[in-house]
Amino acid sequence: MGEGDEVVEQQEAGTNSVSMGILFLVVLVDMIGFGIIIPFLTYMVEHLADPGAHIGRWVAGLMAAYAGMMFLFSPFWGTLSDRIGRRPVLMIGLAGNTIAFFVLGISNSLLMALGARLFAGMVNANMSVTRAYIGDVSKPHEVARRQGMLGVAFGVGFSLGPALGGMLSAPAQWGWTDAFQGTVFETYPYLLACLASSMLSLTGLLVATTKLQESLPKEVRQTVEKRSAIGILSTNIGNIGRMFKRPAISPLLWSYTFYWIGFTIMHVTFILFTMRAIGVGGLGFSESDNGWVFAFIGLCGIITQGRLIGPLTNRFGSSRLMAGGFLFSAAGLASIPYVPPAYAMLGMLLVSGLIAFGNGLASPSNMTLLTHASGAEERGMIMGVSESLRAFSSVSGVLIGGWVWDYTVNRTDLFDFHTAFWLCGFFAVLGWACFRFSKAWKAEEGVLRAAEEAE
In the predicted model, what is the mean pLDDT of residues 125-145? Predict the structure, then answer.
């Protein structure tokens, strides 16, 4: 390699470092926004609902609205990023989040809040396009480590978001100051938390506008078929169908879809179980107890995806890590209702750590394998399909978890409240089987060997 080539390579490395920092910020902002509503969403619905309204159904509806719109629109944004570039689509997502959270904060009806969540899900393409961006600028051996960096942002954001949401809710009721009493924050008690998330998104937008460079070369974008937005939207389902017919990609999509259904069932049933009285099989946890558990989950995710995923990938490969992650998570998910009350916090931290470690292996490994299996001209579309299926899995998991819990929680036979957690483990194992016995198993080894030979 000549001196000129070394200079160019150093300049590219510096540019990529700046871009990765911005992408980290984008995902961090998204996950803070995702987590910030967790502490107050139920209270917000109760605040806006008419007397006698079904609070639980509206909470589920707001959650499903966001995930459902992501399912419909993630492939649209991913495909659009293949045509116009990653940078403008990321900026659209940040601008959309800025608006969506402000509207949510000033919502004076459940329908207005529902509209804000629908809009947020529609414009939130940042995760899939960010993963495509990483695939554009990374060499094959760099993909796993950089996808792990996004996992760190995911974990940090998921830890900070709920904490901020709880601290900034209902400021007019704070006992240590009356500065917010008689202000707009008394009329809209969750506006301050929403404004914090909105301002974070606006900050990310300003940084991306001034510092983020386009990752997809113009000559690659020109090879993508140009279609109208309506045309792209109308082919989203078709893209999903086509990806399921590709032997190197289909198992990666199916396996993660099943796994995420099981993981999302847990999202619904976890606190419903831990808050139950010890006398009826629960752990009697308070809100703060559950908060410590979620903070620990975020910490485990940070360590796994920030420090461990790179060395483990080099040692074992992405295929083994994804398969192992599915099994670790399956064991943890199925064990949740068997934590003994006498060691409730210690037992739940151990089980949650196992789940977080498994997910910390599975998620970035799945994205790495999808990156290896896709070309630059289609990577945005494939990542969009992946995020869309993840959103579909979230909707499915919410519905399955809520229905199974309601049906079994008061039963005393074999199918009691343990059943929902058995389903979590079952879907995770089903995901493992779909991948382990497919043509995608260890397919990345050939890609990495070819890249090494080319160098």
Answer: 74
Q: What is the pLDDT of residue 343?
A: 92
Cβ contact 233:108 at 8 Å: no
Q: What is the pLDDT of residues 316-361, one digit of tens each?
A: 888 999 999 999 999 999 999 999 999 999 999 999 999 989 998 9
3-state helix/strand/coil string of 181-250: CCCHHHHCCCHHHHHHHHHHHHHHHHHHHHHCCCCCCHHHHCCCCCCCHHHHHHCHHHHHHHHCCCCCCH
Instruction: Kindly state the tokens that stand for 361.
Output: 């292996």
Mean pLDDT value across residues 58-68: 79
pLDDT above 70: percentage of residues in the chain: 84
Q: Three-class SS of residue 176?
A: coil
* The total number of residues written for the chain in this structure: 455
Q: Which pLDDT value is given to residue 7?
A: 41
Greater confidence (258 vs 370) lies with 258
Distance set, CA 87 to CA 69, 121, 219 (Å): 21, 19, 16
Q: Are 66 and 264 in contact (CB under 8 A)?
A: no
Write down all domains in the chain, each with its CATH number in brackets: 9-442 (1.20.1250.20)
Angle, helices 250-274 vs 379-408, to 10°: value is 40
Cα–Cα distances (Å) from 170 to 139, 163, 192, 204, 430, in that order, read 47, 14, 8, 26, 43
Measured CA angle at 364 (ends 360, 369), to 5 deg: 140
Q: Are 381 and 82 in contact (CB under 8 A)?
A: yes
DSSP code at position 189: T
* pLDDT exceeds cutoff 60 at 282: yes
Q: Nearest to residue 217, comparing CAs of 104, 102, 137?
A: 137
CB 392 within 8 A of CB 351: no
Alpha-carbon gap, residue 305 to 361, rounded angstroms: 7
